[in-house]
Amino acid sequence: MNNIDFTVLISTYWNDDEERLKKALSSIYNNTIKPKEIILIIDGDIKGESMKVVNEFKKRKDFISYKLTKNIGLAQALNFGLKKVTTEWVARADADDINLSYRFEKQINFLKENNKIDLFGSAIKEISDDGYFIRSTPLTENEIIKYAKKRNPFNHMTVMFRLNKILEVGGYPDLLKMQDYALWAKLISKKIRVKNMSEVLVHVSGGSNLIRRRGGLNYVMSEIKLQYYLYRNNIKKLHNALFDCFQRSIIFLLPSYFRKIIYEKFLR
To answer: Is a pLDDT exceeding 90 seen at residue 32?
Structure first.
């Protein structure tokens, strides 16, 4: 059934939980269609228990890991990994999320039916102590381009993309937690073909701790850079970029309790 080779690219770092890392990697191997290889980038030193998990998976011939000498951040870690990929297609996955057993089968079948596209993703189920939330994304190319003016049009941990299209634009921009959105802006400006699936294919770990970390001056600086990317790549007009930058920067500077309310009510 699978005549489309692809690589799953993951990055892990110190703060990742070893049990979630193990479950995330196992969920890839439990898929009905397996990737040609899994490339794991170890972004600097990680906990001993996490390294034990990595060493267990290294016994598999299709599992490849690279340990970086220091933590360089997700964008640069992924760019390092992209240079190691040998397949036409790359599937992104995160070190603490669960890929449903039919994720890659669904995506390969979708790709066969839409063989002109270069980038696509799916919906996710975000699970926390408070319950769960389905984060859907716009489906068609026109909807994605319109949606990108205000929000990230893809769930990063679900996407598959043609490797050469990513390398042509220089890979992920180095923005804290916003590197994927900035990359999509660059790709959309180059008129690549995009689409999304409506199905939930990944279960994502969410909750208050995640929202609490999404704040502070570092996020404000990333937001400024992101809005500049969106403007420079003709995703939005300058006055819209400035307004959205101001509005979102205020949110990042709010106490975590208020950020949680705003995120759950308006930003999901």
So the answer is: yes
